[in-house]
Design a protein that fits this description.
heterodimer, A: 332 residues, alpha/beta, seven-stranded parallel β-sheet, five-stranded parallel β-sheet, 10 helices, 16 strands, elongated, B: 288 residues, 7 helices, 24% strand
């Protein structure tokens, strides 16, 4: 026996977005290995709606952890809560979403338990009894597979990759035992005061990290993002920007896609006037279909593009948005 | 203050792996991880903003005379001999001193093993001269894990305030005799302000500070300043706790990304409308 423990990360108000693919993968892996699936909710807010939804993903044990003496959202609190559940469930694998915050939780948990950790993983399998995680590295130019040799493996998984790799969530049986835990926060977490925690404004577009379609504007937009926004809206996608575009103030920093910005892995990536510097590729290399538009036929982004369009984005984007709308209108 | 720095292959270079699945290091363009310049800048900035306390200053806080404290920025790296390059750059920027954990047994350390060595080195320095803050960049541009600072904090048992885009240090007061650090961080959904007593581990984003360029004085000092080279034994660590022996992950294989065999290439005419229609058809075909 064993268990795969899944962190239901609810710092994100759309928590199902990351929990669903992680749970689907956990069910698939757990089913094959004979491992139970254990979902973890840390802190307050585990109400009937949460319980019902988690149960609907398949047979699962729901652990609700109260952290005494510290803010439950701090990485040290989450790490200590996950450790308690991993012990209780005799876990072989803990899955967290591979956001910056998720990686920190993974780092805490791995250090506390002396476990092997892989972050930014795009797949997880079990081979010869070992958890093996696959990931793209060096701006997507290499693929690696990494085995974890400790009894517990900690993996921060890219949720889009998990969604693409796993079938739809299995039908629920409604079986969901709820186990409640109380853990004392480590002193290092108790010492941290949360002075302010304010929600960032939510836009009408889907959030960049979660969107299935992302249109990214770069230097080639010349600072005019209206075409980028127009195409994103026509495709129902999010807007992203390169470092150059955010440094120039053409787009807010929060929209920066790259190794120091948001890491994305949408089904469709459209790079508009994006040259494809290695910093940027580090943040978008996991995109499923890459469409690149650039006037320079030798732009590096064309090396990773499924569709390479040599064109000026300033004329192409409005025309493309109109064409997309007319096709949707016809088919709708 | 201790600034964690790493010597990494240049991101623009053709980076590759050895037969043992390790990143090829030691190329002529290897340099200080660009994102560590941000943590050095943060450390230098904070030290410059904090007046050197003396017995007299401490009297004002009412806790009696304490020995004079000097504020230092120690650049710390773990890596092969060539990693001294990162320390030279850090010294040139203004770091006061540099410590290099260099030991053959460290080669092949994974993230947790690396964090173990870093935490032991911080402990070692802390015992010599109290460390208030460990500062790190948001990621190393080779592995892009962003988890070592968090693991170091867990191992030291110190508060972690990570991905900060603002950092402020308050000197000691009756309420918190050791001083405190306040950071602002922007996560995917929130803006947070966190405060913790010192000592603490802080990582900073590339939005936090604008790294300075080395001055002529700094460049000269960088050549003169001795680098303190220590091994695992100096840290009280057995060789088996680091390197491949101390790691619980093992890379099974590395493969270059497969070439794109079926790229579609479109070239626009004057107004781009023809290509737009063709591209829209392609997107519809692929289910978008």
């Amino acid at each position: 026996m064993g268990a795969v423990v899944v962190l239901v990360d609810h710092r994100d108000p759309r928590w199902r977005g990351s929990a669903a693919p992680l749970l689907a993968l956990a069910h698939e892996l757990g089913g094959r290995q004979g491992w139970s699936v254990d979902a973890v909710w840390v802190g307050p807010g585990h109400d009937e709606e949460v319980a019902t939804w988690v149960a609907s993903t398949g047979p699962v044990v729901q652990h609700v952890v109260q952290v005494d003496g510290a803010d439950p959202q701090l990485p040290a609190s989450l790490g200590c809560a996950l450790r308690a559940v991993a012990d209780d469930a005799a876990a072989r694998l803990v899955l967290v979403p591979s956001t910056f915050e998720g990686r920190e939780v993974a780092g805490q948990l791995a250090a506390l338990t002396g476990s092997g950790v892989v972050v930014g993983a795009s797949s997880v399998v079990v081979e010869d009894g070992l958890v093996v995680a696959g990931k793209a590295v060096l701006a997507g130019s290499w693929r690696t597979r990494c085995a974890v040799t400790s009894p517990l493996a900690v993996v921060a998984l890219d949720v889009h990759a998990a969604a693409a790799a796993s079938p739809a969530t299995p039908p629920g049986t409604g079986e969901a035992e709820v186990r409640r835990h109380r853990v004392q926060a480590p002193a290092a977490a108790s010492a941290v005061q949360v002075l302010v925690r304010a929600a960032r404004p939510v836009t009408e577009r889907p959030s960049l990290a979660e969107a299935e379609v992302v249109v990214v504007g770069g230097r080639g937009t010349g600072g005019d993002f209206s075409g980028v926004e127009d195409l994103a809206d026509a495709l129902g996608g999010a807007v992203g920007a390169t470092r150059v575009a955010t440094d120039e103030g053409w787009a807010p920093h929060a929209l920066q896609v790259g190794q120091t910005g948001v890491t994305i892995s949408p089904r469709l990536y459209v790079g508009a006037g994006v040259s494809g510097a290695v910093h940027h590729r580090g943040g978008m290399a996991a995109s499923a279909t890459v469409v690149a538009v650039n006037t320079d036929p030798d732009a590096p982004i064309f090396e990773v593009a499924d569709v390479a369009v040599v064109a000026d984005v300033r004329t192409l984007l409005p025309a493309l948005a109109a064409e997309v709308r007319s096709r949707r209108h016809r088919s709708g | 203050m201790v600034a964690l720095v790493k010597h990494v292959p240049d991101v623009q270079s053709a980076r590759s792996f050895t037969a043992e699945h390790r990143l090829v290091r030691g190329g002529p363009d290897d340099s200080l991880n660009e994102l560590d310049e941000d943590c050095l800048e943060a450390a230098l900035h904070l030290v410059e903003a904090t007046p050197t306390s003396s017995g007299q200053d401490d009297d004002e806080s009412g806790d009696g005379a304490r020995p004079t404290r000097t504020h230092r920025v120690t650049a710390l790296t773990v890596g092969p001999p060539a990693a001294v390059g990162a320390l030279r750059r850090a010294l040139a920027m203004g770091a006061t001193d540099a410590v290099h954990v260099s030991d053959e047994a460290v080669a092949g350390s994974d993230a947790v093993a690396t964090a173990r060595v870093v935490a032991a080195a911080v402990d070692h320095l802390h015992a010599q001269h109290p460390v208030d803050l460990v500062l790190a960049g948001m990621a190393a541009l080779d592995g892009l894990g962003s988890l070592v600072p968090s693991a170091v904090a867990a191992l030291l048992g110190w508060p972690q305030l990570t991905l900060a885009d603002r950092v402020q240090v308050e000197p000691g007061s009756p309420g918190s005799p050791g001083g405190a650090v306040t950071v602002r961080r922007t996560t995917a959904h929130h803006v947070e302000e966190l405060r913790a007593p010192l000592p603490a581990v802080v990582s900073v984003t590339d939005q936090a500070f604008r790294p300075r360029s080395p001055s002529l004085k700094g460049l000269l000092a960088a050549r003169r300043t001795p680098v303190d080279v220590i091994g695992l034994a100096d840290l009280g660590l057995a060789a088996s706790t680091a390197g491949a022996a101390g790691s619980t992950t093992r890379v099974l294989d590395v493969q270059p990304r497969p070439e794109l065999a079926d790229q579609v290439r479109l070239v626009a005419g004057q107004d781009g409308r023809d290509v737009a229609a063709e591209l829209a058809d392609l997107l519809v075909e692929r289910g978008f």
